[in-house]
Design goal:
Blueprint (H helix, E strand, L loop, with lengths): L11 H5 L24 E5 L2 E4 L15 E3 L5 E7 L3 E4 L15
Length: 103
């Protein structure tokens, strides 16, 4: 999928392609987001994960284009984030939640 300068996908050409079937298509690609240091989970409940630090740029990952991967491999779409938390599109079971960080 083509990407704009800030890493967001652009699908304008695919949406406006007059050829049938589409000559331009998109693929879902899941790549890890590299952070300057690992994020540590302080608490996780229902659909909110609270982090041990305030390192995220508010609103950057809560666009619906990013996912959190649980230990069992399931992906949860991120719908909101602040500097110290992320929220997902659906709740996760307590046993599947990310573990608390060691203190």
């Amino acid at each position: 999928m083509p990407a704009l300068g800030d890493g967001q996908a652009c699908i304008v050409c695919q949406e406006n392609c007059p050829v049938s079937p589409k000559a331009i298509f998109t693929r879902e690609v899941f790549s890890p987001v590299r952070m300057s240091r690992p994020l540590a989970v302080q608490a996780a409940e229902r659909n909110r994960i609270t982090l041990n630090s305030d390192t995220l740029e508010p609103g950057r990952f809560g666009t619906g284009d990013y996912y959190a991967v649980l230990a069992d491999g399931r992906r949860l779409r991120l719908t909101a984030n602040g500097s110290g938390f992320i929220e997902t599109d659906r709740s996760f079971a307590p046993d599947a939640a990310p573990r608390r960080a060691a203190r």
